[in-house]
Design a protein that fits this description.
The complex is a heterodimer.
Chain A lengths: L2 H4 L3 H10 L3 H8 L2 E3 L24 H10 L5 E6 L2 H6 L22 E2 L4 H6 L2 H15 L3 E6 L1 H6 L3 H12 L3 E5 L9 H15 L12 E8 L5 H12 L1 E8 L4 H5 L6 E4 L2 H15 L3 E3 L5 H15 L2 H29 L3 E5 L4 H11 L3 E6 L5 H5 L11 H4 L19 H9 L19 E3 L4 H11 L3 E4 L1 H9 L4 E3 L11 H17 L24
Helix pairs in contact in A: 4-10, 7-9, 10-13, 11-22, 14-15, 15-22
Chain B lengths: L27 E2 L6 H9 L5 E6 L2 H15 L6 E2 L6 H4 L2 H15 L3 E6 L1 H5 L4 H11 L7 E5 L8 H16 L11 E4 L5 H13 L4 E3 L25 H5 L6 E4 L14 H9 L3 E2 L7 H15 L5 H21 L3 E5 L2 H13 L3 E6 L7 H14 L6 E3 L4 H11 L3 E4 L4 H7 L3 E3 L17 H22 L9
Parallel strand pairs in B: 2-3, 2-4, 4-5, 6-7, 6-8, 8-9, 10-11, 10-13, 11-12, 13-14
Classes of the chains: A alpha/beta, B alpha/beta.
Chain lengths: ~550, ~475
């Protein structure tokens, strides 16, 4: 559709948004709000949130414990700190897991050292040791991980030495810590990086026993919200592809330990997990590339790329067969839905990849994403990995450890020889790639990083989108505008939306939301009519 | 994950203060409490045109917003001073000032409510001093009023944060009292639902009492659809009314545990009494007939008016239903959990309808918890086969172990009891806070005769439903 004629000029909308800010704030925000069109446009991202601006962002702890490690069922995740953080990250993201009839599952628990005044004054290491011991005595888990909250770094508790000592003491339980205090970095992104580092240091590579299978892959950055990973697993299995590990939806620690035995890593959420993908390649020689299982076409494309990577006729044929079979249902529902959704506008401000991935699904039912942005992404997630070298590392990011990884002496085994890789690249096969969100968005749309509440309100006033996608914090504000909000963090109690079944679910869900009649009830019949001359409604 | 000693197998023969704090020093598994700044934020949301600011890392504001929203399902703007790593070393003054400037320019609030987090408290930030400096550096402009309160989550829980903030609001905003010079009554209801607050206001209006209720999120956290968008939701205690708190004729402060002067903290009503000699009445939370009777009697005295017919009828209907439902509930055993004063009120209700509260648990820690339970249910408890086990500093893991031991018929409390309910196949009657796995938490009514009626019906029906579902005969006529 041509947006230029019908809709407000995005440049004017941007000016309108900035008008209310003090000059210094306006200058800063101006770089994070971009009208798309010019190639090579630079967007400011991963910079500190301005105090007092109500942000979507969470903290380092949330990224580490809540996002990356939270969905693993058989690691006891122990929050070291006062009670709030552990309570608020207690299964609130709707990650699903399937432990089987007798499997361990600690995800329904919230373990916290529940620090009190005296622990802050005299140190909390003793209480931490006691908590670890207690968890071990009761559950005998394979692993216990410790997550630091804000006060821990300040009072100087050394969680890593406690972890080492307890691990040695137990002998049969891996204990490791994450220094993911909430004040580190500028958003949860710092926590992702810390999580990646520690899981790579303490877990990956511990078990060399490779699972059976001809085409073995790791799936990175898929967290099984609303059962997405279950659907992707179903499709992979149908194609004959073996999933060695998943980071970290529906995952278990033994998957992590054997991740280095896979022959390929595919990355869903680039932002939260690209570090592990890179490190797996450097240390063990496992190549990676970006995939997207959100959207039926994107799923098909991703499957084809995996088949192409393995250079195997049989796999390619199987993948084509599966795609053909699965697309029948997808096409039928899309044809039914599209006439009711076509031409409508969507906006989405979420995550480090979803604001990009979900544009696929909207395109499939004829909807346009007028504005999109991430909550905690970096420039490469917007503009593509090609800008990585140009990103200026600021003080906030410099404080996050960058692991120095070298090839493993015994286990490094390049799955594709340098010559072969070179040839594949020449033929157009992209490794270690991510194009970013912006190149896929049409000119005249907007990209906004770390959108604030106030900016969101202005955007809605200007464009009145048919649906707005964000999280629970935005949901009820947006709905007070009379516009439905689809939660793309927790999926609003729905899902899965990944893969083929997910696409069908999403089409139906969006059609329901944009066409529901409930908003029309807001205006009461007596709203305009002067009461004296009102007629009986039944006349 | 609490290991029990033998004492658990010998339940206390009488209510005893020494049982307090049994779990206090342990780590928590599935905590039965939330953090102090959450309670503070909730109070700020009940003040008209007030924006809360949590001084600390932005994660606190984000987590607290998402959690409160899951209960109230309403907009929940809470700002943060967004500490960076450097702020933990050099102090948060710069972020604090910028944060307040930005709140004022975006929201033009009447009040900015500042509470601290464990981060800012650990590095020793003093928001009172920061506010002083902020004010003196911005003398050239008109500023909103400020409330500041210390809410480190390593001391106390969400209820302590809530109570401290009500008191701080009065302390920061009230003008020097003229000593009971106005007709207004202060009412401090505690952590109750928006529906409870609306009902309280209706009652006070019916008695013709002029009042200032703090907080009052009856509208701001349960608002209708809007014709036009509001930056800050309408409703809340007006700042102007709070300024008069020290001239009120009296204060009515709910909660026997709060009123028990736990630790060194006192409630807003008691503070006003201490500072300005405003008489403070301290009834329990009016849950159940007897506690509600005390409340209505107090209103009769305060207003000089007899009980309106409407409430007499509510009370009569309630007793009529007690008579009808007694056969289903008598002798049933229940576990109650939540904030202390909520649990005390619920214990009062259950013991007057013949239910035996076998465990009363709270994540809070107060030496007055057991006393308060004894005060409202002591007489009934004497007739029970064994007295309730009272747990201070409880978590859900300890409650689960107690449930396995005491074999209750149902659980009553917030959504977090679901894990026990699922494991033991027991009905959970959801009420209190937080309720995030059912719709309508804002509309749950607990207080007064009307609240007791709703609770009674919900409890009785939960028992009936359970009996019916588990009956081999499948009776449809109960």
């Amino acid at each position: 559709m041509s947006m230029k004629n019908k809709l407000p000029d995005p440049a004017a909308v941007k000016d309108e948004i900035l008008k209310k800010y003090p000059p210094k704030v306006a200058r800063k925000r101006s770089k994070s709000i971009q009208v798309l069109g010019e190639p090579g446009l630079e967007i400011q991202a991963n910079v500190r949130t301005i105090p007092g601006i109500i942000t979507q962002r969470g903290c380092c702890y949330a990224g580490c414990k809540g996002v990356v490690l939270g969905p693993t069922r058989d690691i006891i995740n122990l929050t070291h700190g006062p009670i709030g953080c552990g309570f608020y990250s207690w299964l609130t993201r709707r990650n699903q897991t399937d432990p089987g009839p007798d499997g361990e599952n600690y995800m329904v628990y919230a373990f916290s050292t529940d620090m009190q005044d005296e622990n802050v004054v005299f140190g909390g290491e003793k209480k931490l040791r006691e908590a670890i011991q207690e968890a071990y005595d009761i559950f005998h888990p394979k692993a216990i991980s410790i997550f630091s909250t804000c006060p821990i770094g300040l009072i100087g508790d050394d969680i890593h030495s406690v972890a080492r000592a307890m691990k040695e003491k137990f002998g049969d339980c891996n204990v490791f810590g994450f220094s993911c205090e909430g004040y580190k970095g500028v958003s949860q992104s710092a926590g992702h990086h810390i999580a990646n580092n520690q899981i790579f240091k303490h877990v990956i590579g511990l078990n060399d026993e490779a699972p059976e299978g001809k085409y073995k892959i790791n799936m990175l950055g898929e967290y099984n919200i609303g059962g997405d990973a279950f659907e992707i697993e179903r499709i992979l299995k149908k194609c004959g592809i073996t999933l060695v590990s998943s980071f970290s939806g529906n995952s278990s620690i033994d998957q992590f330990e054997r991740a280095h035995t896979a022959d390929l890593s595919v990355v869903m959420c680039h932002r939260s997990i690209n570090y592990v993908a890179e490190m797996l390649e450097k240390k063990y020689g496992i190549p990676w590339f970006k995939v997207n299982f959100i959207g039926a076409k994107a799923t098909a494309k991703s499957l084809r790329k995996i088949a192409q990577y393995f250079e195997d006729e049989e796999l390619s044929a199987k993948v084509e067969e599966v795609i053909k079979e699965e697309l029948v249902q997808v096409a039928r529902v899309a044809a039914e839905i599209k006439p009711k959704t076509e031409g409508k506008l969507a906006m989405m401000f979420v995550g480090g990849s979803r604001a990009h991935h979900y544009q696929e699904l909207f395109r499939e039912i004829g909807m346009t994403t007028m504005a999109a942005g991430y909550e905690f992404a970096h420039r490469d997630d917007y503009e593509g990995r090609k800008v990585l070298a140009d990103i200026k590392v600021d003080a906030d990011s410099r404080n996050i450890e960058e692991l120095h990884v070298v090839a493993d002496e015994k286990r490094y085994n390049p799955r594709k020889s340098p010559e072969l890789k070179e040839k594949m690249i020449k033929d157009g096969f992209a490794f270690s790639d991510y194009e970013g969100m912006i190149p896929e968005m049409p000119a005249g749309t907007m990209a906004i990083d770390d959108i604030s509440h106030y900016e969101m309100e202005k955007l809605i006033e200007a464009y009145k989108p048919a649906v707005f996608c964000a999280g629970i914090k935005e949901k009820y504000c947006v709905q007070k505008f009379g516009i439905p909000l689809k939660q793309l963090h927790s999926y609003d109690y729905g899902g899965p939306y990944a893969g083929f079944v997910g696409a069908v679910n999403f089409y139906k869900e969006i059609e329901r939301m944009v066409n529901t009649k409930v908003w029309k009830l807001i205006k009461a019949p007596w709203a305009d009519a002067p009461s004296l001359h009102a007629e009986l409604a039944c006349e | 994950m609490i290991s029990f000693s033998n004492e658990i197998k010998n339940p206390y023969t009488e209510l005893d203060k020494s049982i307090g704090g049994r779990f206090a020093d342990n780590p928590a598994t599935n905590a039965c409490k939330l953090c102090a700044p959450l309670g503070a934020s909730l109070v700020f949301k009940g003040i008209e045109n007030c924006v809360p600011l949590i001084h600390g890392s932005q994660g606190c504001a984000t987590y607290i917003r998402r959690y409160l929203i899951s209960h109230f399902r309403e907009p929940m703007d809470i700002a943060s001073s967004s500490f960076a790593e450097s702020s933990t070393i050099f102090g948060g003054a710069e972020n604090f000032n910028a944060g307040i400037d930005n709140i004022i320019s975006q929201y033009t609030p009447d009040v900015v409510g500042v509470c601290t987090s464990c981060l800012s408290e650990t590095i020793g930030e003093d928001p009172g001093m920061l506010l002083g400096e902020y004010r003196s550096s911005r003398k050239d402009r008109e500023l909103p009023a400020f409330i500041n309160v210390a809410t480190p989550s390593y001391s106390g829980n969400h209820m302590d944060g809530f109570n401290a903030t009500v008191k701080a609001a009065v302390r920061c905003l009230c003008e020097n009292g003229g000593g009971a010079s106005c007709e207004m009554l202060n009412i401090f209801p505690g952590l109750v639902s928006p529906a409870d607050m609306r009902y309280l206001k209706e009652i006070l209006d019916d008695f013709g009492i002029d009042y200032m209720m703090l907080p009052d999120y009856s509208e701001s956290l349960d608002s209708p659809t809007w014709d036009e968008y509001h930056k800050l939701p309408p409703g809340g205690t007006p700042r102007k009314r709070i300024t008069q708190a020290a001239s009120a004729r009296a204060s009515l402060q709910f909660g026997r545990v709060l009123g028990g002067n736990s630790r060194d903290s006192i409630g807003a009503g008691e503070w006003l009494e201490k500072q300005f000699k405003i008489k403070c009445l301290k009834p329990g939370m009016p849950i159940g007939i007897k506690e509600s009777d005390i409340f209505f009697k107090t209103l009769e005295t305060l207003s000089g008016k007899p009980m309106p017919e409407k409430y007499k009828n509510e009370r009569g209907r309630l007793i009529d239903s007690y008579i009808d439902g007694h056969k289903y509930l008598f002798g049933k055993r229940a576990i109650i959990f939540g904030e202390e004063d909520f649990v005390v009120g619920m214990t009062a209700l259950l013991s007057e309808i013949g239910v035996h509260p076998v465990v009363c648990g709270s994540g809070g820690e107060s030496p007055h918890f057991a006393d308060a339970i004894n005060a409202v249910a002591g007489d009934a408890i004497k007739n029970f086969p064994e007295p309730p086990i009272i747990v201070n500093g409880a978590d859900f893991e300890s409650l689960l172990e107690l449930a396995l031991e005491t074999r209750p018929d149902f659980l009553i409390g917030n959504s977090k009891g679901y894990y026990i309910s699922r494991q033991m196949n027991l009905p959970l009657i959801r009420c209190g806070f937080p309720v995030h796995d059912r719709i309508g938490a804002q509309r749950l009514l607990h207080l007064g005769y009307r609240g007791a009626q709703q609770l009674f019906d919900a409890i009785t029906n939960a028992v009936l439903e359970y009996n019916q579902d588990n009956s081999p005969m499948g009776y449809k006529y109960m």
